[in-house]
Every structure is written in structure tokens, then in C-alpha cells.
Amino acid sequence: MKTALSLALHAFAAAWLALSLSACGSGEQPASTVPPVAVPAANAPPPVSAAALAQKPAVALLEQDVAYGEGQKNNLVGFLAMPQDAAEPLPGIIVIHEWWGLNDQVKTMARRLAGEGYVALAVDLYGGATAATPDKAQVLMTALLDDPESGRKNLRQAYDYLDKYALAPRIGSIGWDLGGSWALQTALLYPDQLDAVVMYYGQVAVDRDQLGKLRLPILGFFGAEDKSIPVHDVQNFRTTLNELGKSAEVLIMIGADHGFANSSGSNYNERSAAEAWTKTLEFLKHNLKATAEPPAQ
Fold first, then answer.
1. CA-wise closest residue to 170 among 212, 128, 216
2. Domain of 7, in residue numbers
């Protein structure tokens, strides 16, 4: 019986959050504005590699492209993966790609998450387009700036898809780079409903008042050598979350640069990527699979 998938196949498509070309800054912004995104080095390689595609889950998966919402002109299609033998609804994860778009790299990450027992929905912020060069990626990312509200609707529809069609009992978000910024923004859109967020080297410039509304655990990974997101900003982000009493673990990976978890990129750091992935799986298991505690009286 594969109830979650059969229901999931009847959803619509969507379009989502907008980003800024400006490099990471130290000032705060309200969540309603478009946060900056770190721009990778100009010599970054195309985001597809045999090493990335070789990372296959140990369990058989059901996977396919699905329409999870409605854009202004067309259905926007994401990539859905889940264990083939699922007999009941599973926790859901919104998977958000880098500035390259919904390519094979992020689909591989969605498969890896699905192999751990989740319904993974990799959203598409670019309406079907992907980039193999920084110039094309910048064009696609710039286009998102034209209509930031349609971007927010995209993530809302992704959440609704997992909630209403996949019947996910709990939902989290995860993203890398551009997607790391918007994994956090998803939490700001759903400060009371989202159950966990994992951000990899995403922009951290968010308003203190908005962070104060969060009611979910946060896990973040950043590179100590990342010049686009200075360690000082990450430390301020961590300090603010701690001062606000949030459940947050923000880790600065020694020797790692921006994009250290992307096995297709020139900054890939196997040690840091493996350590971060292990922590990611432990975090998601604890917050999306563990038996919920009764609410405090």
C-alpha cells in the first residue's frame, strides 16, 4: 500500500522565493524583503558529476516529476522521491536547490533523503530552467527578483503539497547556498508549523524580531573559509538565536569553503560534507520521526 505516493501524484505546481545578487552583509533585514545570496566564484564548475550521481540510497525508491502548485503561467514541476515500500504517510522535506536550479545534484540529495525514510520534494525556483555556468545561473537568479511574492507562493504550495497530498505528519526544509537562505525563509513563513530546518551556507541576514517568532529547531552549517558569508556574520546569527532562546545549532566547519557539501563543485570538502550529513540525518530523525512530546501545559 503506497497511500502517500498515490495521493501525491494528484497535486499541482508552484513558483517561489526571490533572492538578491548582493553579497552577504552584516545588517539585518525583515523576512518580508528579499535576502541576499552568496554568489559562487566565477570559475565554479557545472553542478553535475559522476561522483554525485553515484551516491545512491540503499532502499528502492519511487520517484518522478510532480506538479505541486500553480505558477502565473504554467504549472511548475518539482522532483518527488520516497521509499518504494512505504505503507503509511512519511515525514516530508522541502528540498531547495542552489543557484544552479533543480539539476541532477539536488535530485541526488532528494534521493538520499528519501532513502532515509522521507517524502522528499525538491522544488523548482526557475520554472524548469537550469544553469551549467555562473553567467547563466546569475541570469536565472536575477529573474527571481522580478516577482518575489510568486516565490513565496511557491514554498507555501510546496508545504501544502506535502501536508495535504502526501499527508506528511511532520515537515522540514533543507537547502544549500541559495536554497539554504530559503530553507530558513520557509521557517519564517511557517514559524509555528514547520518542524525543522537545515541550512547549508545560506545567507543569515534576517531580522531579530522575525527570528524571535520561530518555534522550531534549526541546524546550520557554514564554512570557516567562506568569504561570501563571513564567520563574523555567522557568529552573530548564532548568538542572536541563543539570546532568543531558540533551539539552534550553528556550526562553522574548519577548513571548509562555500559549497563544501556539493560533490560536483571545486570547493567540495569530503570530511566536512560527511560530518555535516551525519549530523543532518540525526537532526532530521530526531525532529521529524521521533514521537512527539505532549505540549506544555
1. 216
2. 3-289
The total of structural domains in the chain comes to 1
Question: DSSP string spanning 145-178?
Answer: TT-HHHHHHHHHHHHHIIIIIS--SSEEEEEETH
Mean pLDDT, contiguous 10-residue spans, the chain (297 residues): 34 27 29 49 45 65 95 89 93 96 95 97 92 92 77 92 97 96 92 97 87 96 96 95 96 97 92 97 96 45
- Neighbouring CB atoms inside 10 A of 232's CB total 9
The separation between CA 240 and the C-alpha centre of its own chain, rounded to angstroms, equals: 21
CATH number of the domain to which 38 belongs? 3.40.50.1820
Burial class (CB in 10 A: 0-12, 13-18, 19+), 274: exposed
In a domain, 296, yes or no: no
Closest residue by Cα to residue 203 from 173, 174, 189, 182 = 182
How many CA atoms, within 13 angstroms, populate the side-chain half-sphere of residue 208?
10
The reported pLDDT for the residue numbered 38 is 56
Please enumerate in sequence order all residues whose Cβ is within 8 A of that of 216, keeping only pairs 6 or more positions apart, or say none: 187, 191, 194, 195, 196, 197, 247, 287
